[in-house]
């Protein structure tokens, strides 16, 4: 339904967080008739992310006001998200969107998907369109399989193509995330003939039971089925995995290229980061229980 605009609202929303995610494991269980892969994963939100700023426009136009390398505005997921929300609600409002891009592209940490979800959440509030979380998730799925998770806004055990979500309680952790000098196209990895596509289906109970008596989160359950394929294709990813695994059990997130390890404290993660070889980009980040904009939808 179109917003009535009778309630006074701020014409801007600034400093809207778009947090990254880590895949604590990622199993590919099959390929669907539509060509998409069926998968299972646990999504972990972290407090490292992009920051977006929104200004309401009266003319209905959607503009991204800053440049992003190799991302034309018309194909940017934030612009597409804003236009989908317009079409769904019939709102007359538009928006200027500014993206403070802090997350690496092609890292498997969901940067573009998170930006799109933050756009849907922020504009839902700025435009007063009052779309429910469930309906925002349906809109989000049109933008990509990871986008509904960020709308869901809690750590989740996921199935389907990543859109079937069940909230899961995860322990507080700190992570060291290293970004290899590689950009890994997701489609290339999904199409690789060597990719494992027949992992056994597991349940959230399996995941929680195996981890209940372990201290080695996230390495104590499963694997990332994409990791071996990526490591063979991208030597820098293999190098980072080999180096970090000496310090703490490491894993690639998503389709790569970012590699991470979990630590029980920020001090331990920072101590490991201090050893990262020169020339490798890294970040220490803490786990989140909820998306910072969780209250923007209900």
Features of the shown structure:
2 domains; Ribosomal Protein S5, domain 2; 29% helix; four-stranded antiparallel sheet; 298 residues; Alpha-Beta Plaits; disordered N terminus; 9 helices; six-stranded mixed sheet; alpha+beta; 27% strand
Helix content estimate: 25-40%
Pattern of helices and strands: EEEHEHHHEEEHHHHEEHE
**Apparent shape:** globular
Rg over alpha carbons: 19 Å
Please state the average pLDDT score: 92
Number of helices: 9
Q: Biggest β-sheet, characterized?
A: 6 strands, mixed
CATH fold annotation of the largest domain:
Ribosomal Protein S5, domain 2
Compute the separation of the termini in Å: 16 Å
Say how many strands there are.
10
For the record, what CATH class of the largest domain applies?
Answer: Alpha Beta
Residues in β-strands, percent? 25-35%
Q: Which secondary-structure class do the elements indicate? A: alpha+beta
Number of domains: 2
Unreliable residue runs: 1-8
The CATH architecture category of the largest domain equals 2-Layer Sandwich
């Amino acid at each position: 339904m179109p917003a009535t605009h009778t309630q006074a609202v701020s014409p801007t929303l600034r400093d809207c967080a778009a947090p990254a995610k880590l895949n604590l494991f990622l199993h590919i269980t099959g390929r669907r008739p539509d060509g998409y892969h069926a998968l299972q994963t646990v999504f972990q939100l972290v407090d490292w992310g992009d920051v977006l700023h929104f200004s309401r426009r009266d003319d209905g136009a959607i503009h991204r006001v800053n440049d992003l390398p190799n991302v034309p505005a018309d194909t940017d997921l934030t612009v597409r998200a804003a236009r989908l929300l317009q079409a769904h609600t019939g709102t007359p409002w538009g928006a200027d969107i500014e993206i403070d891009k802090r997350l690496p592209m092609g890292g498997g940490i969901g940067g573009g998907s998170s930006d799109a979800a933050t756009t849907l959440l922020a504009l839902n509030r700025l435009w007063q369109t009052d779309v429910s979380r469930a309906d925002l998730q349906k809109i989000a799925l049109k933008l990509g399989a990871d986008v509904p998770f960020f709308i869901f806004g809690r750590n989740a055990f996921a199935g389907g193509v990543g859109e079937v979500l069940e909230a899961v309680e995860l322990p507080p952790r700190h992570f060291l995330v290293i970004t290899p000098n590689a950009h890994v196209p997701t489609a290339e990895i999904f199409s690789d003939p060597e990719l494992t596509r027949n992992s056994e289906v597991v349940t959230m109970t399996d995941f929680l039971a195996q981890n209940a008596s372990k201290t080695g989160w996230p390495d104590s359950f499963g694997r990332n089925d994409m990791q071996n394929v990526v490591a063979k294709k991208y030597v820098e990813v293999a190098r980072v995995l080999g180096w970090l695994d000496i310090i703490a059990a490491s894993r690639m997130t998503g389709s790569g290229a970012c590699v991470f390890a979990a630590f029980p404290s920020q001090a331990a993660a920072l101590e490991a980061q201090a050893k990262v070889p020169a020339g490798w980009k890294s970040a220490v980040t803490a786990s989140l229980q909820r998306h910072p904009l969780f209250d923007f939808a209900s």
